[in-house]
């Protein structure tokens, strides 16, 4: 007999219009995590996946600061999150700040740096799913505060935060509204709204 969280996880498997890689269908962004510790070797696997992402001119502009729960650095990351994200992300086993280098080594703007950071996080997300680890990416982070608290050098930009942990946990650990969010069906816009052949369609 599946418990409610296991049922929710099954219900989150994407109902795709076209067949895609199973790990992509299974991935979703929970706000609760199991108690199992993320081992250092598994973290290394996640960052290794990010390391091998495609990047413009092979500049690899991504940088990461990560911390384990119950550490001073973890609490500093929590302090930089939006109030909404603090409510649940403070219980994640690992928190990460995702950062990109804004310029090339010769001082020119690297227009593609945010794109490349996104590619690295995509790699990390799929690798995590392969390990049965969940990632929840968060835009709700005070990047100016994070840059100051973590002494991020000039020329780098804190872009987002990520909560990492194994799928699992206790639904009752979330507030009622977040419990409903966990139960909600996944929604995506249809391809016709974003993939246009030959010319832009309004």
From TrEMBL:
The keyword Oxidoreductase applies. Residues 24-166 form the Nitroreductase domain. Transmembrane segments: none annotated. It comes from the Bacteria. Residues 177-202 are annotated as: Disordered. Keywords: Oxidoreductase. InterPro entries: Nitroreductase (IPR029479), Nitroreductase-like (IPR000415). GO terms for molecular function: oxidoreductase activity. PANTHER family: NAD(P)H NITROREDUCTASE YDGI-RELATED, NADH DEHYDROGENASE_NAD(P)H NITROREDUCTASE XCC3605-RELATED. Belongs to the nitroreductase family. This is Nitroreductase.
């Amino acid at each position: 007999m599946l418990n409610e969280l296991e049922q929710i996880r099954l219900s989150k498997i994407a109902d795709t219009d076209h067949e895609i890689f199973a790990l992509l269908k299974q991935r979703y962004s929970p706000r609760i995590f199991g108690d199992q510790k993320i081992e250092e070797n598994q973290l290394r696997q996640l960052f290794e996946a990010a390391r091998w992402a495609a990047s413009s001119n092979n500049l690899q502009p991504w940088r990461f600061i990560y911390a384990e729960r119950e550490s001073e650095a973890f609490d500093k990351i929590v302090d930089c999150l939006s109030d909404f994200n603090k409510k649940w992300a403070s219980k994640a086993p690992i928190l990460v700040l995702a950062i990109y280098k804004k310029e090339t080594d010769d001082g020119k703007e690297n227009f593609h740096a945010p794109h490349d950071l996104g590619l690295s996080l995509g790699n990390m997300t799929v690798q995590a799913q392969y390990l049965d680890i969940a990632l929840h990416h968060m835009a709700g982070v005070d990047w100016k505060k994070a840059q100051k608290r973590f002494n991020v050098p000039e020329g780098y930009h804190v872009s987002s935060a990520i909560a990492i942990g194994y799928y699992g946990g206790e639904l009752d650990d979330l507030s009622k509204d977040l419990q409903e969010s966990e139960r909600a069906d996944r929604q995506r816009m249809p391809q016709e709204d974003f993939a246009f052949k030959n010319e832009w369609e309004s």
